[in-house]
Amino acid sequence: MIPVSTLDAAMLYAETPEMPMHTMGILILEPEDPLGADGLEASAFSLTRQRFAERLHLIPPFRQRIVQGPLQIGDPHWIEDPAFDLDKHLVRVSLPSPGGMRELCDFVGSFAGTCLERDRPLWKAALVEGLEGGKLALVMKIHHAAMDGGRSAAIAGELMDTSPEGRVVPPPDEPWLPDREPTIPWLAADTLRTLAGKPRRAVEAATKMVEAVRGKGRSEPVPSADGEPPEKPPLFEAPPTMFNGALTPNRSVAFADVSFDDVKAIKRAFGTTVNDLVLAGCCGALRSWLAEHGGLPDRPLVATVPVSVRHEGDQAGNRVSVIRVHLPIQSGDPVERLLAIREETSRQKRRHRKSGGGDLLKNFADLVTNITVPWMATQFIGFFSSRHLADRVPPLWNLVISNVAGPPVPLYTAGTRLTHLFPLGPVQQGSGLNITVMSTVDRLCFGALACTELVPDLQDIGTGFVSEIELLKERIE
Q: Domain residue spans in the chain?
């Protein structure tokens, strides 16, 4: 058995029926031989199942599930699931005609709105048939406790191949062996050991957080536009918007994509990063959407932007920190917005490095999980969610925007080629919109997940993202 890290455990404790905590990936697969598309669909599911079965050892979390002590007082552990059954995780779905993106979005929204079952490994996949042109979609959801978005993105490379001919994947050095279910006495003893160590670990986490905050206080000051000494940003600086409030279980999704070559050309022309372009595209899209849905707020939006702190070769759960980026939606010029974001992200990254921000999220999770027990944490989150308290509290941030590097080479499987990979991240109480963007070889794929009641006309945000990239491209031509 493997203890669940505090940051991964926090993802478990935070989950409620209104707030499933999984990430998703939607892989669009196009037949290499369009004339054989009908025959491919007939065999696609069996080939996909075979591919999963042969390569499960490359993705250890896919056979690990959660066990926890009595009364949810002790900390959770991962075990190799003795009852693992691939057929409980991989299902076959057929879209209603005409099988376009609208029908796919409807299915994915429904699939996204349900929590993964805790009595089995925390993932599920659906091979979706019936798409126009004989295309297939592999829709996967994986709990955030099992792996973060960056690690999830690597799964496509493990399940697929870099050539149409495929590759031979050698079997594991040792056969997979499931764990025995822990006994109640063992779990009780482990709970006592865990409780005994909590005070010491809480003090250590608090000390590290204080040191990080002191380091942040010594980071370089950022002068205001008029040259006056900077003020400390208020905690609740995010303006209220339609998409900030209490969640329901209902989810909607939107997809869009742009040429990755165009993105790289804009990046070079303006001296920015791809991440800056992603934020600028989202900023322009949100500006247009807000103008049509209640008007622009009087100050910049605050986006939480995950930053990977994963070391090379590190395969474990979540290795992520965050920075807060102000999106200048008041500006009417796309280039002005992009350059302002470039300066903002550079400033926030410097602050993040100087404050030791890479460990701040982990230390916070360490502190919270060691001054409580799982039962207390889940009860508090459940109370907050069921009472819709997010409607009464100002938002700490408006939305989450992630940029994840996808597969850098063409990928193939079972007679198909990967053309698009749309990512989706979870929404949180108080912030009903998550935008995630992922690159493939030649496309930059945009995925938005939202609480349906908080974000109507979600596809307009995806359309706005494409329009913003086109406007920036026109400025360099």
A: 2-185, 199-405+425-474
Q: How many CA atoms lie within 13 A of 384 on its CB side?
A: 17
Q: What is the distance, to the nearest Å, from the Cα of residue 150 to the centroid of all Cα atoms in its chain?
A: 8
User: Please, which residues have CB within 8 angstroms of residue 191's CB and are 6 or more apart in sequence?
Assistant: 69, 70, 73, 74, 75
Long-range contacts at 54-62 (CB < 8 A, ≥ 24 apart): 54/169, 55/158, 55/159, 55/169, 56/86, 56/176, 57/171, 57/172, 57/176, 58/158, 58/169, 59/155, 59/158, 60/315, 61/121, 61/122, 61/123, 61/142, 61/146, 61/147, 62/89, 62/121, 62/123
What's the pLDDT at 314? 52
How much is the pLDDT for 266?
Answer: 97
Q: How far is CA 107 from CA 74, 335, 382, 408, 421, in A?
A: 37, 37, 27, 28, 16
Note whether 2-185 and 199-405+425-474 share their fold. yes
Q: Which of 94, 122, 89, 124 is nearest to 107 (CA)?
A: 94
Distance CA 213, CA 222 (A): 17
What would the pLDDT profile of 215-226 be if each residue is shown by its tens digit?
554 444 444 444
- In this prediction the pTM is 0.92
Q: Which residues are catalytic?
A: 144
pLDDT, position 258: 98
**Cα-only R_g, the chain:** 23
Strands 433-439, 399-404: pairing kind: parallel
Angle between helices 6-13 and 374-386 (to 10 degrees): 40
Residues 6+ apart with CB under 8 A from 200: none
Looking at domain 2-185, does it have CATH number 3.40.50.2300?
no
Element spanning 375, H or E: helix 374-386
Quickly count: other Cβ atoms within 10 Å of residue 351's Cβ. 17
Give every strand in the sheet of 22-31, ordered side by side. Answer: 90-94, 123-129, 136-143, 22-31, 416-424, 412-413
Residues of the chain scoring pLDDT < 50: 217-232
**Calculated CA dihedral for residues 459, 465, 471, 474, nearest 10 degrees:** -110
446-455 tens-digit pLDDT: 999 999 999 9
Would you state the pLDDT for residue 71? Answer: 81
Residue 2 CB: number of other CB atoms within 10 A? 13
- The size of the chain, in residues, is 477
Closest CA to 24 of 139, 133, 104, 114: 139
Extract the tokens encoding 79: 């075990």
Tell me if 365 sits within 8 A of 371, measured CB to CB.
Answer: no
Task: With beta carbons less than 8 A apart as the criterion, state whether 132 and 98 touch.
Answer: yes
Fold of 199-405+425-474: Chloramphenicol Acetyltransferase (3.30.559)
Residue 307 confidence (pLDDT): 82
